[in-house]
Amino acid sequence: MTTKLPKVPVVVVGMGWAGSIISAELTKAGIKVVGLERGKERKMSDYLMVHDELRFQHREELMQDLSKETITHRNNKKIRALPMRHYGTFIVGDGLGGAGSHWNGQTYRFLPYDFEIKTLTEKRYGAGKIKPEIPLQDWGITYDEIEPYYDTFEKMAGISGETVELYGERSNPYPTGPMLKTPVLEEFEKATKKLGYKPYIMPSANLSENYTNPDGISRAACQYCAYCENFGCEYGAKADPVVTVIPVAKETGNLDLRTHANVTRIVNDGTKATGVIYVNTFTGEEFEQPAEVVVVTSYVFNNARLLLNSNLGKPYNPDTGEGVIGKNYCYQVSSGYSTLYYDDKEWNLYAGAGALGIEIPEYTGDNFDHSDLNFLHGAGIRTTQYGNRPIATNHAPVGTPSWGAEFKKQSIKYANSVLQVKSQGASLPHRNNYLDLDPTYKDAYGMPLLRMTYDYTEQDKQLVKYISKVTRKIAEEMGPDHIDTVGEQAAFNVNVDTNTHNTGGVIMGADPETSAVNSYLQMWDADNVFVIGASAFPHNSCFNPTATLSALAYRASEGIERYLKGGGSLV
Predict the structure, then answer these.
(1) Could you say which of 73, 430, 501, 539 is catalytic?
(2) Are the CB atoms for 277 and 306 separated by under 8 Å?
(3) What backbone phi and psi angles, to 5 degrees, belong to 88?
(4) Distance from the CA of 98 to the CA of which of 236, 270, 346, 478 falls in 20 to 30 A?
(5) Between helices 458-477 and 183-194, what is the axis angle to 10°?
(6) Residue ranges per structural domain of the chain
(7) Coil/strand/helix, residue 45
(8) Residue range 426-430: average pLDDT?
(9) Of residues 347 and 43, which shows the higher confidence score?
(10) Cβ of 565: how many Cβ atoms within 10 Å?
(11) Is 302 helix (H, G, I), strand (E, B) or coil?
C-alpha cells in the first residue's frame, strides 16, 4: 500500500551538486523543499578515517550497490546487453552529496565553442564538416548567458585557478589563487613553454588557501594528502555539497531532507507531474510525495531512467532519429597519453591532490585548425599529481610481465620515477550511441534497468591518433629514459586511465523536436518538471562536467522560482 503525503511546493530527486544547489537557492528564497536521497546521510566527520584505500578505492564504499541496481551495456543493437556486475571505467555515487563527495575537484568551464558548436563549426568549415551520423546541436544558451552562473558557483565552492587567454571572458578572477606548482608540474611547464605553449595550473575545487564563501561557509586549505578521488575530504578542503550548500539549505529551516528514499517513478498524466513515488530502502514502505514542481537531479543514467520508467518525454529511436529521452549519450575520450620513465630522477609522487595539475589550452575545442582533420573538437593535454596510492599504483614499462619477479622489480624501480603527459578529449554524439530501458533485467524494486548502447567511434579514434602525437612530442621534450604512448605505438585504448564523465540522455536545446529540456532545464513535455545535471549536455567537452552542470543548476533555480510564481514555459 502506498502512503500519500501532504503536498509540497518542490520535491528534489537526488542530493548531489545539482539537487543541493537547487535546494539551497530555493530554501533561501523561502520556498519549502523536500529533498529525497536514496543513499545515507553524510557529514564531514564521517571521513575522519577516510585514508583506507581498500575500503574506498577498491571496494567502492561511496558508490551505488550494483547487486541492487546497475546498468546493462552493449556495443551495438545487434547484441544482447548484459548487466555491469563490478565497476570498471566509470562509477556511480550514492549517498548525500553524490558524486560531489567522491570527485577529484577539477573544475573547468566549458568553452564558448561548446555552447554553439553546430553554428560555429558550420560558420568556420561549412555544413559538410559535420558528418550525418554525428547529431551535433547548439545548447540553446550561449557562454555569455551562462557565465554569471559559473561565477556564482566558483565563489560558492572557492575554486582555485588562473585566467586562461584562449578561453571565454570572465567577469571575475577565481576567488582563490592556483594550487602549488610542484616539481612535477614544473617539468611539464618547462617543456611546454619551450615548445611555444602557454601552460596554466588547472582550476581546482581543492582549496589553495583558507576560504570563506558568500554564504559564510569557512573551509580549510588542501593538505595535499592524495586521497581525493573516490574519497571524502576530512578537512572540508574539497568542495562538497555536504560542507557547502546543504548546510545553508538546512539552516533556513525550509529543507525537509529524507535519506534512504529511492524514487522509482514520477506520477504524471503525460503533460504535468503531480509528484513522485519513493521507497524507504530500510523498511520497503512506499510513499507518494505530491508536489507542485518535480526537480530531477540524480546521476546521468538515473535521470534518463526515471523519465523512461515514468513515461515522460518521447524515447529516442536510433532507426529514425526521432525522440529525445536517451539521445546523445556521450562519455569522454581519455587516451592518447604518454608515460615517461626516468632511471635517475625521483619525485614525491605519493603526495598530491585530485585537481593538482597543469595543462595547455592550445588543443582544446576549436583552438586549432580542423580544416584538414577528420575529427572535431579536441583535448586538454596535461600532467597531474593526484598522489600514487600504494595498492593501486604499480607502473612498469610496456612489455613488462604483469606479475612475478620482473614486475616487482620494475614497479619498485619506477615507484617515484614515472610521470605522464595525459589527454582528456571531447566526446561527440553518435546516432547509434544512446540510452533506453532494458527489456530483460530489473532492479530490486522490479523496475527495468537502464540499457546503454555505446561504442567508441571513428571520431574518437582519429582524435586519439592526432593528440597522441602531441603528447609524445611534449614527453620527448621532458627528457625521460623511456616513453610509452597509447594511441600511437599501442592500440587505441580508452579504458586505460579513463574517467567517470557520462553525459547526455535528457539534452537541452531550443527545439522541442531535438531536445528534452529548454535552457532552464524545464521539460518541453511537462512544464513543472525540471531535469538538471550533465544529462542535459548535448555533447561532452574535453573538460570535467561539474562546473557546467552546477552553473546550469543555478540558472534552473531562478527558472523554478519564476515558474512557482507564474507557471508556463520559461522560454
Answers:
(1) 501
(2) no
(3) -125, -105
(4) 270
(5) 100
(6) 2-47+61-67+84-204+222-566
(7) helix
(8) 97
(9) 347
(10) 7
(11) helix
Instruction: Write the pLDDT tens digit of every residue in 212-252.
Output: 999 999 999 999 999 998 999 998 999 999 999 999 999 99
284 Cβ neighbours under 8 A, 6+ residues apart:
none
Which three-class secondary structure string do you get for 247-312?
A: HHHHHHCCEEEEECEEEEEEEECCCCEEEEEEEECCCCCEEEEEEEEEEECCCHHHHHHHHHHCCC
Cβ 473 vs Cβ 103: under 8 Å: no
Backbone angles phi, psi at 22, to 5 degrees: -55, -45
Which residues are CB-neighbours of 561 under 8 A, at least 6 positions away? Answer: 25, 26, 29, 31
Do 262 and 281 form a contact (C-beta atoms < 8 A)? yes
Q: Is domain 2-47+61-67+84-204+222-566 given the CATH code 3.90.76.10 in the classification?
A: no
Paired strand residues for 287: 3, 278
Q: What is the pLDDT of residue 494?
A: 53
CA angle 302, 306, 312 (to 5 degrees): 140
Buried b (16+ CB within 10 A) or exposed e, 358-377: bbbbbbbbbeeebeeeebbb
Average model confidence (pLDDT) for the chain? 94
Q: For residue 228, which of 203, 244, 212, 204 has the smallest C-alpha distance?
A: 204
Beta-ladder partners of 442: 448
Is residue 566 classed as helix, strand or coil in its secondary structure? helix
Q: Is the dihedral of CA 26, 28, 33, 38 positive or negative?
A: positive
List % helix, strand, coil for the chain (3-state, nearest 5).
25, 25, 55
Residue with cell 515558474: 563
**In the chain, what's the furthest Cα-to-Cα distance?**
71
Look at residues 455, 445, 440, 510 and name the one whose alpha carbon lies nearest to residue 306.
445
- With beta carbons less than 8 A apart as the criterion, state whether 129 and 370 touch: yes
Q: Among 82, 142, 147, 135, which Cα is nearest to 109's?
A: 147
- Three-state DSSP at 200 gives strand
Using 50, 70 and 90 to split pLDDT, how confident is the model at 393? confident
pLDDT in tens, 120-139: 999 999 999 999 999 999 99
Grid cell of 508 as nine digits:
537541452
Whether 147 contacts 169, CB under 8 Å: yes
Among candidate residues 271, 267, 348, the one with its CA nearest the CA of residue 306:
267
Could you give the CA distance from residue 257 to residue 12 in angstroms, rounded to a whole number?
9
- Round to whole Å and give the CA distance between 479 and 236: 38
**pLDDT confidence tier of residue 46, bands split at 50, 70 and 90:** confident
448-453 vs 2-4, strand pairing mode: unpaired
Q: How far apart are CA 552 and CA 537, in angstroms?
A: 10
C-alpha cell at 359: 595543462
58 catalytic per annotation: no
Share of the chain above pLDDT 70, in %: 98
The distance from CA 551 to its chain's CA centroid, rounded to whole angstroms, is: 13
